[in-house]
Write a structure and sequence with these properties.
alpha/beta; Spo0b-associated Gtp-binding Protein, Chain: A; Rossmann fold; six-stranded mixed beta sheet; 6 helices
């Protein structure tokens, strides 16, 4: 995952059509054969396809230009030129393609994962067989193939997950993902260990829950501070959010307000997502000032009575099983809300 890439600019080009052929029948006992020039073949298309085994856009770092084959020229004896081969550009789920000049959305593959023909190849030119008439029995006219089209586009990747882990650097997001799933994020005791998103799958019963550990948020991220916009862009696709609050940090009572404010500043939709608050490092019993983690957890619950607040210790395993079921309920509720919104939109249409 060190080769993670979430943006790429590429150039794509469809194939040109082959030229039509101007030819005549030249056979024994047919001294004045008519026109027999075949049509040129059509150029190949540019096609985007979703590959579920891809997780990043790293493969586009080293190949920036994709071109379909040109169609072959028509030949004599009425033989049509061969069609040019299509070029297929593979993308991971959650990709978006935009016009490089206007930033206009061309295709959002989170909503439709079917193959997308972006640019069609040029049509092949007509051979002279099409131009025979009662007044022109031996036409020498044939048409050239239509040229292909070249376009430069921007590809973006926005991760899709059921639950996004939100928290300050070193709040324990990567440790929780490591405990819950088969993902193996880099874990260390210094800020910004996670510089790229990590995905893991938590299985609860028969349900798979995709969890995204995204680089730690800091105050000012909505204005671009820290990993800023890149963090917020990825978390915008998650169905629900889990706010991790380090109970060993002296700013634990201000952490949630700061995190939520950054989300609201970037997008009101982010702040409206289903959410859960998690107090982490509950196993650190007594701090230097003699205050216990249980006391801090009680203070956190007292400050935010409407919120669903849990406490865990990744180290000791306290609260981990209960949190897995809470994630299941959170995901189910968020999915039901999304389905209800889609149904309402369809009714309005």
């Amino acid at each position: 995952m060190e080769r993670f890439a979430d943006e790429a600019i590429i150039e794509v080009s469809s194939g040109s059509g082959g030229n039509g052929c101007a030819a005549f029948r030249r056979e024994k006992y047919v001294p004045r054969g008519g026109p027999a020039g075949g049509d040129g073949g059509r150029g190949g298309d540019v096609i985007f396809t979703i590959k579920r085994n891809l997780r990043t856009l790293a493969h586009l770092r080293y190949k920036h230009f994709f071109k379909a084959d040109n169609g072959r020229d028509g030949e004599s004896s009425g033989r049509y030129g061969q069609q040019g081969a299509d070029v297929t550009v593979p993308l991971p789920p959650g990709s978006v393609i935009r016009d490089i000049q206007t930033n206009e959305l061309i295709r959002d593959f989170s909503k439709n994962t079917e193959d997308f023909v972006f640019i069609k190849g040029g049509n092949g030119g007509w051979g002279n067989i099409h131009f025979k008439s009662s007044t022109n029995q031996a036409p020498r006219k044939a048409l050239p193939g239509k040229p292909g089209i070249t376009a430069k586009i921007k590809v973006e990747l926005q991760l899709m997950a059921d639950i996004g882990l939100v928290g300050f650097p070193n709040a324990g997001k990567s440790s929780l993902l490591d405990r819950f799933t088969n993902a193996r994020p880099k874990i260390a005791s210094y800020p910004f260990t996670t510089k790229i998103p990590n995905l893991g799958v938590l299985t609860v019963g028969e349900r798979d829950i995709i969890i995204a550990d995204i680089p730690g948020l800091i105050e000012g991220a909505s204005g671009g501070a820290g990993l800023g916009f890149r963090f917020l862009k990825h978390i915008s696709r998650t169905a629900a959010l889990a706010f991790l609050i380090d109970l060993s940090d002296d700013n634990y009572l201000q952490a949630y307000d700061i995190l939520l404010n950054e989300l609201k500043t970037y997008s009101e939709d982010l702040a409206e997502k289903k959410r859960l608050l998690i107090g982490t490092k509950i196993d650190l019993n007594d701090l230097e000032n003699g205050i216990s983690m249980e006391t801090r957890l009680s203070e956190l619950k007292a400050k935010y009575p409407p919120e669903n607040i849990m406490a865990i210790s990744v180290f000791s395993g306290d609260g981990i099983k209960e949190l897995s079921y809470a994630f299941l309920n959170l995901t189910t509720e968020a999915t039901e809300d999304q389905q209800a919104e889609l149904a309402l939109e369809e009714d309005e249409l």
